[in-house]
Amino acid sequence: MTDALLSTNDTSKARRERVRKSLGRRHRSETIFRWAGILSIVAALGFVAILFGMILSKGLPSFWQSTLHVEAYFDPELIEGGPQPQPQDSASPAEYQQAMAQWQRNVTLSNWNAIVERAVRTSAPDADIETRDLLELVTTAARFQLRDMYFANPDVLGQTLPVSILASANTDNWLKGTINRELADARQQLSAETRQLADRFVAEGIITFDFAWHIFTNVDSRSAPATAGLAGAFMGSLYMMIVVIVLAVPIGVASAIYLEEFAPKNRWTDLIEININNLAAVPSIVFGLLGAAVFINYLGLPRSAPLVGGLVLTLMTLPTIIIATRSSLRAVPPSLRQAALGLGASKNQTVFHHVLPLTFPGILTATIIGVAQALGETAPLLLIGMSAFIANIPATPLDSATALPVQIYLWQGNENRNFFEARTSAAIIVLLGLMLLLNAIAIFLRTRLERRA
Amino acid sequence: MNALVVAALLLVLLTVSYQVGWSRSRKLASGKGDRLHSRPIYHGVLAALFALLPAILLLSLWALFSDYVSSGFILAQLPLETAQLTEVQVQAAVNRVHALANGFGVVGTPSPEEMGAARAYESFQLVTSLVVVAAAAALGAAGLFLAQRRIGLRLRARTEVELAIRIALILCSTVAILTTIGIVLSLLADAFRFFTFIAPQNFFFGTVWNPRFQSTGSGSAGEYGLLPLLWGTVMISIIAMLVAVPIGLMSAIYLSQYADKRVRSVVKPVIEVLAGIPTIVYGFFALVSVGPFLAAAGDVIGLDIRATSALTAGIVMGIMIIPFISSLSDDIIAQVPRAMRDGSLGLGATKSETIRKVLLPAALPGVVGAILLAVSRAIGETMIVVLAAGNSPVLRFNPAEPTSTVTVSIVNQLTGDAAFTSPQTLVAFALGLTLFVMTLLLNIMALYIVRKFREQYE
Fold it and tell me: Please, which pLDDT band fits residue A425 given cuts at 50, 70 and 90?
């Protein structure tokens, strides 16, 4: 026995030695493991930071765009069409309209570029620059801007007015340095004279960097990229979101109520449940194929219409809303239902008068998650033709339109990379801002509703 | 048919019928000492249902079938030579008349027959729409009459209204089923039409993807080998998983096991922000930042990495999937019973040993399910690969080269204005079917595994 004890003592000493040795190794591996965890969190947070840093640093400068502040002289010798026709007793309304249309055509045909040119030249009378190079400085939409000023108020004829004209996209690139300023002349978008004049204007304060409100108020433009804005895409997205809210929320909430409160547990409801879970994981592009085949090809709904886009996005967000609503219904304590039933309420009354009001915060959150998801979806919209170039604000959900994420897709593919990289980032900032706003509203409303409940 | 007129008619019908049901039942109740079975509001709703449902049913039937009726009428008006035309030409002729009658312009000068048909069609439209609206109104009135005759003390209006609500709820919950059926049917139908042009074996086992567009005039239909696209998809998904699984899993483990509450409450939402960012933003990020960065990094170490490549798309897709993996694994690890963890710690194992040898093996089925779900998401992801994978559908095994995927090809083939008759367009549905089946199998497998795992510890 003592022998045995001795031997155990012996081995226990050896074992203790072994354990002590292995302890160092084990603690080292513990540290390594812990650091691996910290590193992956740092990596994930780093990705968030890099992503937002890149978007913000590229996109924010795009909200301040170079603008010329010059004096435009509405020269009576250049503007054709004569005085604006007035309605007269002797002429019928049809004749007046015809005269008006003729006048507008004549005014449009005037040499507005000459007026733009003179306005710029008066700010730099000594500049030795050709007309073509000078006009490169400002956006091609400048002549329409002056024409519209004249249409709005024909009395400006013969007057000199201060106007703010956007610089062209190429000028903006040059001034912001988004194009390499060291490049040789042949590889620059603008001639040497134009670049020199732009720099001079900035030094003299004639070109300033003004907040680009037109990003929010203008529609997309190909001929004058400097004036391209998001208004059309915004309206398209708005229509689609309205369709999604009007259709997906009632249908989603109704099916969640049925499945959670009424449905018997049998094979059929099991099938619906599995089906909804699967539908939530079907790739979004498959919904686009469904939309193209069923809504456009079979039912003959118009291509590029926000209505069709909204329908596709409705089907896509339905599972999200159903799943979230079901979980908030499940969270309502069963005692509440039992109390209502015990007092003689019918099953319907129990659900609609007592259970459902408690789930409003949950349904609201589900709706906003679903709408935010639909707002950022691009792929299915490409398949139903919403990637066409549309230069109008859609008046109804049946007009051709595009959507914010699709506008981002279109802009990132624009040939004028230097300008549109920043403009795309600006559009992304607007889109992310909208989503942030939606989520903030959701959190605000939820806390308010929950406090009251 | 003017939609506004119809809507106004329905609204009037709704108000009148509700009012009739409500006031009649009220009068009954107040007259004698008897009590109504249901409150007046239910009688009102029931009357409105009786009046509106038949009318709405008729109107929607008309909306569905008016196209067939009107094109049949136009065909009858047109001269008989149309009988020898193909289906498409007949449809075009009908469309011309339709456009003429509705005051839209048509290409070329319309023939006298067409003008005649258009005039006849115009009056036909007017008459039929008047008849349909009148019939709907009559049905509504009849329904209302029937409903108000039924009103009585013993009428179980509430039960009937609740039945109607129940049916409406059931109908809503079938929308999800109908969506799935719609997806399957539309994909199958158009994919089969595609397989009448191209043999299935050439599609599924072909190694060349070259869908020539007909406008190039080569005459041939092109080659539609799926394998290059499938390989591109698989390669990008593997890269994405290589990025997402370690980072996502490790951050879930660290946040749930090591981090203190404050850190967790800040870091977790920030990582989840990644999940809410639209994929087009990731695509732009890949195109503008990650791609050029990788190319420059490749230059430094002497590797030729293209800016748009499988690597770029895969890495960015991995970033997108990180929050997906981390929140799912977080849930799953939290479900492993605490006793198992405490037992291991009590025996003297270190924290990391407990996690690696006890927690992870126990949570493994769930984690595998989460990864499968993530893979299915990576396979179906579109915008990142459209922007950043380089769109080069050639069978290559180097991830630093441009590639293409199933989703990219769907977008490329279907964004034109082409009709649904050429293999160039229809192939999108064959690709979509492949994609749908792949993701469906992954999802079912994953959901099954996750469900089994949950049951194990519940």
Answer: very high
